[in-house]
Amino acid sequence: MSESKPSVLFVCVHNAGRSQMAAAFLTRLGQGRVEVRSAGSAPADTVNPAVVQAMAEVGIDIAAAAPKVLTSEAVQASDVVITMGCGDACPYFPGKRYLDWKLDDPAGQGVAAVRPIRDQIEQRIRGLLAGLGIEAAA
Is 15 a catalytic residue? Predict the structure, then answer.
């Protein structure tokens, strides 16, 4: 891990749903104690509106978030890389901790289908923080 604070990169194909929710939860619950990145192997033009709405329901505004392209530099700069369905499009660098979270894809889904995905992601983020030795914000 980095000497200052751990860094986590969330990767999914479009960087418009799961990885955006995970990054937002980690930013909120980590309270600045974790460097947070997200990216996609084939980023969409915008974040999924149902994802924006589902996150707003729990008090997290990601309306201004924008999908970003996955770069080797982002992977190299991260201690933990969490993939969410990007398959072998994710670059691999020795010495990094890789996790693959199997989660339903919210693409094309309404907010009712996104809520359980959102809630699963929040629980996984809380577990990730515990594993990093960081207490999640209330």
Answer: no
